[in-house]
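<goal> How does this chain fold?
<body> The protein record starts here
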Amino acid sequence: MPSSFEHAQIRHANLTGRIPVVFVHGLWLLPTSWERWAQVFAEAGFAPVTPAWPSAPPAGAAPARTAPAGTAPAGTAPARTAGEVAGHFADLIGGLDRRPAVVGHCTGGLLAQILAGRGLACAAVAISPAPLQGALPLPISPPRAPVRAPADPAVVGSAVPLTYDQFRHAFANAVDEAEAERLYETFAVPAPGVPPLQAAAAFDPWSEPEVDRTAKDRGPLLLMSGEMDRIVPWAVAHASYESQVRNEHHLTEILEMPGRGHSLTVDGGWREVCGTALTFIQRFVDA
């Protein structure tokens, strides 16, 4: 069920009469990672909605990191699958009077594609998206990956934090040390252990994160990839593009952002990425 804050955002979006834009954050981040994006889109005439995953950690990165590794901070429901989270966002979108655009990052990018494939988005932007069901080539796990073996119950049933070294290597490899430290303190939180395991198994055509690639009501789709992204390298993002570009009903595009890593939505270059997403949506949606 949407939280009281999310209900308030939905009510506000409906009252404005504007086209909503639903921002879906990825693993190890919070909805606050979209605050600057929401302001830009609001100024462009859209109604931003920045929901959390179900039973998300408390607001703010520092409080959410207080639990020991392998345990869930108070208020979390860590054993969330991608399918369960997609259902949560589908319910939230169902409360909107107008079909929204959807923008997602990392696992949020996968969720954006799932929602678009269900006909719930008038346009979608998937940034550094986790791999689709049946996607090839296999996703490349970065060294010092934060997720342990699937058989480990501490991973499957709890939240998994990132150390600073893991965050620096996987998320913030394309920025300097000072910015990496700032990003970690501002944004990094423990994440459910299940979705990364699902992403690692996405080559299986029967894995859960299913996307309807040929949906007639999918809407236009842009996939974005950072040139230096270690979590979702170009080969993985392009495989998702190749699996959807044959949708004969709607345009599918892909774009690589030079010199950018996985932190491209929150680091110092966020405005360029935001502007690119906004321009794409504005091509098809009149705010």
Q: What stands out?
A: Residues 270-284 form the longest helix (15 residues). The two ends are 28 Å apart (CA to CA).
